[in-house]
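C-alpha cells incoming
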C-alpha cells in the first residue's frame, strides 16, 4: 500500500468510528495519524520507525504497520462488519458527516438514504436539537442529486461526453493509446458510468492534465492507476480513467469492456488451457504473463475471432458465426436546409462522399410538418433540380431524391400518389398524435404499407431512450406487413432513438425483412451516427443481405424501381 492509500484507510476508520458514535479521542487519534503522514515529506518505505513521527501513537502505528505488511487492517474490517453499508451511504449526502449521521441513527433510527428521505418528508428531522426545517430541505435536495447520479445514463447523454473526452485524450502528449470501455463500448442503451482505458508512461502528468482539462464536478479518487471523477454537464456524469502500460493495454481494455458474463466465459476458456486471464495479461502455467498488442491478438491467442464489443454478452458470441464486418455504402434518411436540417444539399453530398459511400437519399420532411418547414410538392420539384445538378457534377456518386413523408393522424398520407411517383425514394413516418390507440396507429402504418410508392418506414416505434415509450405499434404485425408488401424497416441510428430495438431487429431478421441503418442526420456532423447504428445492429446479428446499406447502388436501384 502506498502512503495515500494508508491515509485514506486511516480517514475511513475515523469516519466509521464517528458514525458508530465512538469515543472522540479515539477518532481524533486516527485523524491526527492521517494528518501526520500527510505532512511528512517521505514516502512510506523511507520511514524507518513509524511511531517516531509526531502524531502517530502506539495504536495507530500498529494499524499502519499492519497496512504496510498485509494491505488491510483488522480494525477497519471489524468496523465494516459492524456498521451497515446503507448507513455509510448517507455520507454521500452533502452536509452530512459522521457526527450528524450518528445522531440521526441514534435518535431517529435513520440507517439509509431511503429512511432519511422519509424522515425529512415527515418533518421529523427538525425535532432534533441543532437541525431545522432548512436542514430537511437541504438533505432532500442532496438526496435528489445523489439519486440522479446513481441513475443510469442514456446512450445519447453519454455519447457527446465520450466524444469530448476522446478529443481531450487525443491531444495529450502523455497518452499512447486510449479507448472508451464498459457498457458504452458495448453500445448498451444506458450505462451507469463511463470507463476509459489509457496507456501512458506518465500517469501523474496525465492525471493532472485530465483534472485540468475536464469540467470536474467532484474528484472521487485520483491515484496513479485510476482517476474517478464526476463531470459537470446536463447530467452529472461519473467517469473512470484507468492508466495502464502499453503492454497491459489490450488485456485491460478487454477486461474493462466486459460484459461480466463474457469475461466469465473467457476465463473458463483460459482455465481449460491451464491459463489465467487477469486485467493485465494472460498468466501461463509456469507463472509467466503474456501480453498482446491488440484485442484481436488476445482473442486469437484463444483461437477466437475478434468478437465485437456489442455482442460480448457471454452467450451467443461463443456459439454462433459472428456477423461479418459490413461495408456501409449508403445512408438513406437525412434532412437539409430545405426543411429543418442545418447543411445544404451539396454539403451533405460532399460529406457523404468523404465517408466513402456510393449513394444516399435526401429525405426532407413533407408539408404536414410545417414547424420543420416541410416541403410542398412544388418545393419538392425545385429540390430535385438541385439534387440532379449535384449528381451531374459528381458522376461517381448518386443522391436519390426522396421524402420523409408524414403518415397523418387520420391514416392518410401527406402526398398523393402522383407526387410520390416522381420521387426516387419514399420514407413514411409518424410524427404526430403519438397517443392514439394501437388500432389507430396500426391503421396509419397500414396506409403506408399498402401504398406501392412507399419504400421504407422510418423510426417504426418513435421511442426516445429513457424518455418516451413510443407509439402503440404491434411489431409482429408491422413486420408481417413489411414482408408481405416488400418494405424496408429502419434502424434509426440517432442515439436518441435506436429503433428498431434489438428485440425488434431480431424479429425482423427472423422474418427476412430488409433493414436500413439510417442517421436521420440534420447536419453533416450527425452523419457520424452511422457507427452507433452499425454497432447496435451487431447485437441482433443482422446478416449482410438484409442490411440495405451494404447493397450496391445497382441492387438498391433495382429495389426502389420495382
Ligand atoms: Zn422522422
Ligand atoms: Zn427524419
Amino acid at each position: 500500500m502506498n502512503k495515500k492509500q494508508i491515509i485514506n484507510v486511516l480517514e475511513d476508520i475515523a469516519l466509521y468510528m464517528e458514525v458508530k458514535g465512538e469515543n472522540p479521542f479515539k477518532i481524533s487519534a486516527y485523524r491526527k495519524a492521517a494528518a501526520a503522514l500527510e505532512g511528512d515529506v517521505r514516502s512510506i518505505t523511507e520511514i524507518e520507525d513509524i511511531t517516531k513521527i509526531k502524531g502517530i501513537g502506539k495504536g495507530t502505528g500498529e494499524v499502519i504497520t499492519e497496512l504496510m505488511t498485509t494491505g488491510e487492517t483488522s480494525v477497519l474490517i471489524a468496523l465494516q462488519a459492524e456498521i451497515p453499508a446503507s448507513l455509510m451511504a448517507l455520507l454521500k449526502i452533502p452536509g452530512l458527516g459522521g457526527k450528524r449521521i450518528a445522531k440521526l441513527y441514534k435518535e431517529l433510527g435513520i440507517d439509509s438514504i431511503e429512511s432519511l428521505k422519509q424522515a425529512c418528508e415527515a418533518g421529523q428531522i427538525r425535532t432534533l436539537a441543532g437541525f431545522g426545517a432548512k436542514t430537511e430541505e437541504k438533505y432532500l435536495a442532496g438526496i435528489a442529486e445523489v439519486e440522479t447520479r446513481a441513475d443510469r445514463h442514456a446512450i445519447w447523454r453519454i455519447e457527446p461526453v465520450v466524444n469530448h473526452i476522446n478529443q481531450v485524450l487525443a491531444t495529450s502528449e502523455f497518452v499512447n493509446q486510449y479507448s472508451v470501455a464498459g457498457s458504452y463500448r458495448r453500445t448498451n442503451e444506458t450505462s451507469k458510468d463511463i470507463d476509459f482505458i489509457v496507456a501512458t508512461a506518465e500517469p501523474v502528468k496525465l492525471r493532472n492534465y485530465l483534472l485540468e482539462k475536464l469540467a470536474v464536478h467532484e474528484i472521487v479518487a485520483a491515484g496513479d492507476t485510476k482517476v474517478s471523477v464526476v463531470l459537470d454537464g446536463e447530467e452529472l456524469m461519473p467517469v473512470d480513467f484507468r492508466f495502464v502500460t502499453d503492454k497491459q493495454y489490450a488485456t485491460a481494455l478487454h477486461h474493462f469492456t466486459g460484459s461480466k458474463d463474457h469475461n466469465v466465459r473467457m476465463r473458463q476458456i483460459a482455465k481449460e488451457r491451464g491459463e489465467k486471464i487477469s486485467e493485465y495479461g494472460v498468466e501461463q502455467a509456469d507463472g509467466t504473463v503474456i501480453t498482446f498488442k491488440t484485442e484481436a491478438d488476445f482473442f486469437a491467442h484463444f483461437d477466437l475471432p475478434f468478437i465485437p464489443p456489442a455482442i460480448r454478452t457471454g452467450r451467443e458470441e461463443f456459439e454462433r458465426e459472428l456477423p461479418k464486418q459490413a461495408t456501409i455504402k449508403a445512408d438513406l434518411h437525412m434532412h437539409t436546409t430545405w426543411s429543418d436540417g442545418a447543411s445544404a444539399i451539396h454539403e451533405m453530398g460532399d460529406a457523404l462522399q468523404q465517408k466513402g459511400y456510393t449513394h444516399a437519399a435526401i429525405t426532407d420532411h413533407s408539408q404536414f410538418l410545417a414547424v420543420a418547414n416541410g416541403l410542398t410538392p412544388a418545393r419538392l420539384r425545385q429540390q430535385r433540380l438541385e439534387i440532379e445538378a449535384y449528381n451531374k457534377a459528381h458522376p461517381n456518386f448518386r443522391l436519390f431524391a426522396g421524402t420523409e413523408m408524414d403518415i397523418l393522424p387520420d391514416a392518410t398520407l401527406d402526398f398523393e400518389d402522383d407526387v410520390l411517383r416522381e420521387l426516387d425514394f419514399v420514407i413514411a413516418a409518424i410524427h404526430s398524435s403519438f397517443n392514439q390507440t394501437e388500432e389507430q396507429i396500426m391503421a396509419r402504418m397500414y396506409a403506408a404499407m399498402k401504398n406501392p410508392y412507399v419504400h421504407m418506414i422510418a423510426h417504426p416505434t418513435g421511442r426516445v431512450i429513457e424518455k418516451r415509450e413510443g407509439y402503440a405499434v404491434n411489431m409482429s404485425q408491422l413486420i408481417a406487413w413489411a414482408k408481405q408488401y416488400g418494405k424496408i424497416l429502419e434502424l434509426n441510428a440517432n442515439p436518441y432513438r435506436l429503433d428498431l430495438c434489438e428485440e425488434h431487429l431480431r424479429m425482423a431478421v427472423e422474418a427476412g425483412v430488409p433493414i436500413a441503418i439510417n442517421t436521420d442526420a440534420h447536419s453533416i456532423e450527425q452523419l457520424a451516427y452511422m457507427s452507433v447504428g452499425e454497432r447496435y445492429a451487431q447485437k441482433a446479428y443482422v446478416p449482410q443481405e438484409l442490411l440495405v446499406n451494404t447493397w450496391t447502388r445497382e441492387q438498391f436501384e433495382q429495389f426502389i424501381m420495382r
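note: The radius of gyration is 29 Å.
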